[in-house]
Structure formats: structure tokens, C-alpha cells
UniProtKB/TrEMBL annotation:
It comes from Sphingobium tyrosinilyticum. This is GMP synthase [glutamine-hydrolyzing]. It comes from the Bacteria. ATP binds at S229, G230, G231, V232, D233, S234, A235. CDD domains: GATase1_GMP_Synthase, GMP_synthase_C. GO terms for molecular function: GMP synthase (glutamine-hydrolyzing) activity. Transmembrane segments: none annotated.
Length: 519
């Protein structure tokens, strides 16, 4: 059986920082989209057979000799194309126009004036109107390719937007995908629906049905093993796969004893109770605590936890036996090949914890049904599958768990202290209605003891730090500005209710220069 291709848009990535936003906006318009780096775009085109193409921005200049180009065949394919910023410049040059280096360029907010109607403006912008857009360019188009005409101008870019209506090619110097172009999402929706003629009916219900058919086709009557981390991604992947193949799926939950309060129990009752999914719950707390004795270096902790996790998981997988497939909750941002113009590997700040290497070692094939989704789309799919809100809306939690929130040596006793403080902090955040406004909030237990006084007694106990950040992807983050009264309420409760902590601090560090986790 071959599955029918869904209507889609191909986004060709030239390395812009905001290419992912184009995919987001297109999906928000109800149309499925995928990003492919410029150097594998031809292959992606063949596979997807898209109904339209968007060429992204990028840091290169078309005037450099070896700067990237779109496959020339795209311009002969007879489907609509939208070029954005660098994408506009390469399209113009590849079709016979001219681009020149600007001495100054235009960066940030600008205003364009609509000169002529075009299909992208239908129901949105009229001739003579002025609209805010976001510009970020050095080079600019100085001679249009044959068949193009100007439809909007700005002070710094006489060809701010051009169109070849006959071929259904559009080119913008500004970025419609960013929020600083207030009508940008509508322009993109016009392109994919109105110009490309797509219905805009891509929904999570449809995604669920398509994926179920795909999983059945991939797995046949084989056996699948899925490692649960306690987080949203692996849980959603498991529930979806179970819906597709039922008890051919077995989940393995390696409980390292480094979860937050009540979390391990929640995973077990959700899977065994609500969903009746076969689950192996391995209580490996003692193994992990023993191995962490005397370990204080953050990378050593991460490496030990990652390796031990894989060892335990592998043992269990062998016991279950006969599984040809390993399921993972890999998400789209982990999959998109980033286009590097600088060459060279990026520096490892922290070794991340995953089950990399296992499929090859055990000769298993991967099942990754969430590969095309962004984090908030996974949450939407989780809701579609009926997972409880408390699970679906959860803040991200790192694989190595509380171990990287206890600088210095980790022990069961310190984990228990931290769990109590963390639970109070999160409870207060939920009570204040702030949970969903925060990307991540957690307590950290410091290896520092300070003197305090409680009643008539001297105390000499640990310091707890509280962290809360806002972020959209975890790559950068800002601190959450709690009221002083909120923080003082949490501090008082923690000191009164948690034995072992007598002082509470708030972490005011953004990322960069800090990282979100402390280790
Ligand atoms: P940092 O601390 O690097 O964290 O600013 C960025 C985001 O990644 C999460 N994080 C991890 N997630 N395995 C994970 O699955 C890990 O080893 C890991 N380390 C950090 C962190 O919680 C934050 O959301």
C-alpha cells in the first residue's frame, strides 16, 4: 500500500534564523509544510510533490561566487513560488534580474506603500495604503527579471515587493513570517490558500489518522519498544503508536529516581490504568544513586546517567525479545538539518541525554511519528488523543532529571529534599495562575549551608535557588519577573515545610549568558 501524498508546501532553507517561523505560519494556515536545506531541496521536491514553494531568507549574498541557489528546475515546475529576502534575490537573479550590494541596507521596522493590486493582497491590502513590515537586508534588487512588476515600495527598497502574476511568482524584500510584520501571517495564508489553491484543512485529527496508517504500514506485525521519559513527547508518541498497533507495542519506563514529586506514579497509572498499554516499570533508583556517589562534575553526571539509562533500557528490551522497532518522540526542531555557512562543528555546552546509538547496536529500526511536529503541535496532538491536560501542558524536564539541579554530589536524601521544595514552588505557581505563562520553573538545591534561626534555635542548612524563565524554544530565555510578595510567600513556605532548607534565593540570570538548567 502506498499512502496518498498530502497537499504540502516546500520551504527551501538558505540559513535564515527565522526559517522555522515560515513553516509555523504555513501550518497555522492549515497547510502542511516541510523545510529542506537548499542543497537537498531537489530530493525533497520529488518526495513531497508540493503545490507551492517558499524560498527563505539567509545570511549569504547572491553576489558571492559560491552562495547558495534554488534548483533551477523549480522555476520551470509550473507551481507558485514566494521568495523572501535572500530567496527573493536569488530568484530574481536566477530568472534574469539584477541584485546589487547596498551600502547601508535596511534593518528593522519599515513601511511599504502598496502600488498595485496582486493576488497576495486580496482581501487584505489595497492600492495606496501604507503597512508596517520587518526588513533585514543589505543587498537589494536593482533590475527586475522579465515578467515581474513592482507591487509595493519602501523608502530603502524600490522593489520591496514584486510579482509575476502569470507565473504566480512573488518576491518580498521584507519578512512576512515574523510578528513585526503584523499582516505577514495573512500574506502567507493568501499565498498557500489563495494562490496555491490549498484548502487549509490540515488538522491534528487528519495528522493522527495519516500517522496511524503510516505506523501500521511501517511496522506490519512487528514488535515495537518505546522508552518513556515521563515527558510529553515520548508519552504522545507511545499513545499514538498504541492506537495504531495495539499490544504490539511495549513501553519501558526506566525510573532513575530523579523525577519530580509524584511523576513516576503518574506515568505508571496513566499507561497501565487509563490507556492499558503494556508497560515495564523498572525501578532503577538504587543503581543510579550508587553510581552517582562521589560524582560532582556536571558532564560526568550527565554521561553516567545517559549511559546507565541505555544499559538498563537495552537489558529490558532484550528480555522482552523480538522487537524490531524502537519508538522515539523526536521532534521537528531536532530533525531539521541546519544549514551551516561557517563550517565546523558547534561547541558542546552540555551532553544531552537520549537513546542515540541504541537502534544500531540492537539492529532496530526507528519509529518516530512526531518527526514533523513542533512542541506545541505535539501538545495539540496529545489533547487530540485525550491525554490529560496536566500531562500535556507540562513544562519541559531534562533527561538527567534532578541530578543536574543538585550541584555537587547527588543522593536520595538530597533528591527528596529538592522534590519537596520543587512541589511547593510549582503548587504556588499553579495557584497563582502563572504556570502556562512560564516556559520552565524549578527549584535547585545548592551545596552550600548557611546559618539561620528558627524559633529559639540556630539552624545550619542548605540553600535553595528558584528559577523561572520564559522562552519559545529553550535556546534563549528571560527570567520570569515574579512579584516580591509571591517570592516571599514561596520562600516562607519552603523554609517552614522542608526540613534541610533554611534560605531561598531567586536566580535572575537570562540565557545567554546563563543556561536554563544549572548544570
Ligand atoms: P539549557 O540548560 O541548556 O537547557 O539552557 C535548554 C533546555 O533543554 C533542557 N535540557 C535537556 N533536555 N535532555 C533533555 O531532554 C538533557 O540532557 C537536557 N539538558 C537540558 C532544559 O531543561 C531546557 O528546557
Amino acid at each position: 500500500m502506498t499512502l496518498p501524498l498530502q497537499d504540502s508546501i516546500l520551504i527551501v532553507d538558505f540559513g535564515s534564523q527565522v526559517t522555522q517561523l515560515i513553516a509555523r505560519r504555513v501550518r497555522e494556515a492549515g497547510v502542511y509544510s516541510e523545510i529542506a536545506p537548499f542543497n537537498s531541496a531537489a530530493e525533497a521536491f520529488k518526495r513531497l510533490q508540493p503545490k507551492g514553494i517558499i524560498l527563505s531568507g539567509g545570511p549569504s549574498s547572491v553576489m558571492w561566487e559560491d552562495s547558495p541557489r534554488a534548483p533551477q528546475a523549480f522555476f520551470e515546475a509550473g507551481i507558485p513560488i514566494l521568495g523572501i529576502c535572500y530567496g527573493q534575490q536569488t530568484m530574481m537573479q536566477q530568472m534574469g534580474g539584477q541584485v546589487e550590494g547596498g551600502e547601508s541596507g535596511e534593518f528593522g521596522r519599515a513601511f511599504i506603500e502598496v502600488k498595485k493590486r496582486c493576488a497576495l493582497f486580496d482581501g487584505l491590502w489595497a492600492e495606496g495604503e501604507r503597512h508596517q513590515v520587518w526588513m533585514s537586508h543589505g543587498d537589494k534588487v536593482t533590475k527586475l527579471a522579465p515578467g515581474f512588476e513592482v507591487v509595493a515600495v519602501s523608502e530603502g527598497a524600490p522593489f520591496a515587493m514584486t510579482a509575476n502574476e502569470e507565473k504566480r511568482f512573488y518576491a518580498t524584500q521584507f519578512h512576512p513570517e515574523v510578528v513585526h510584520t503584523p499582516d505577514g501571517a495573512k500574506l502567507l495564508a493568501n499565498f498557500v490558500r489563495h494562490v496555491c489553491g490549498l484548502k487549509g484543512d490540515w488538522t491534528m485529527a487528519e495528522f493522527r489518522a495519516t500517522k496511524i496508517a503510516e505506523i501500521r504500514e511501517q511496522v506490519g506485525d512487528g514488535k515495537v519498544i518505546c522508552g518513556l521519559s515521563g515527558g510529553v513527547d515520548s508519552a504522545v508518541a507511545a499513545v499514538l503508536i498504541h492506537e495504531a498497533i495495539g499490544d504490539q507495542l511495549t513501553c519501558v519506563f526506566v525510573d532513575h529516581g530523579l523525577m519530580r514529586s509524584g511523576e513516576a506514579e503518574q506515568v505508571v497509572s496513566l499507561f497501565r490504568g487509563s490507556y492499558n498499554i503494556p508497560l515495564v516499570h523498572v525501578n532503577a533508583e538504587t543503581l543510579f544513586m550508587k553510581g552517582l556517589e562521589g560524582v560532582t562534575d556536571p558532564e560526568a553526571k550527565r554521561k553516567f546517567i545517559g549511559k546507565t539509562f541505555i544499559d538498563v533500557f537495552e537489558d529490558e528490551a532484550r528480555k522482552i525479545g523480538g522487537a524490531g522497532f524502537l519508538a522515539q518522540g523526536t521532534l521537528y526542531p531536532d530533525v531539521i538539518e541546519s544549514v551551516s555557512f561557517t563550517g565546523g562543528p558547534s561547541v558542546t555546552i552540555k551532553s544531552h541525554h537520549n537513546v542515540g546509538g541504541l537502534p544500531e547496536r540492537m539492529n532496530m529500526k526507528l519509529v518516530e511519528p512526531l518527526r514533523e511536529l513542533f512542541k506545541d503541535e505535539v501538545r495539540a496532538l496529545g489533547r487530540e488523543l485525550g491525554l490529560p491536560e496536566i500531562f500535556v501542558g507540562r513544562h519541559p524536564f531534562p533527561g538527567p532529571g534532578l541530578a543536574i539541579r543538585i550541584p555537587g554530589e547527588v543522593s536520595k536524601e538530597r533528591c527528596d529534599i529538592l522534590r519537596k521544595a520543587d512541589a511547593i514552588y510549582l503548587e504556588e505557581i499553579r495557584n497563582a495562575g502563572l504556570y502556562d505563562a512560564i516556559w520552565q520553573a524549578f527549584a535547585v538545591l545548592l551545596p552550600v549551608r548557611t546559618v539561620g534561626v528558627m524559633g529559639d534555635h540556630r539552624t545550619y542548612d542548605s540553600v535553595c535557588a528558584l528559577r523561572a524563565v520564559t522562552s519559545t524554544d529553550g535556546m534563549t530565555a528571560d527570567i520570569y519577573p515574579f512579584d516580591a510578595s509571591f517570592l516571599s510567600r514561596v520562600a516562607t513556605r519552603i523554609i517552614n515545610e522542608v526540613k534541610g532548607i533554611n534560605r531561598v534565593c531567586y536566580d535572575f540570570t537570562s540565557k545567554p549568558p546563563g543556561t536554563i538548567e544549572w548544570e
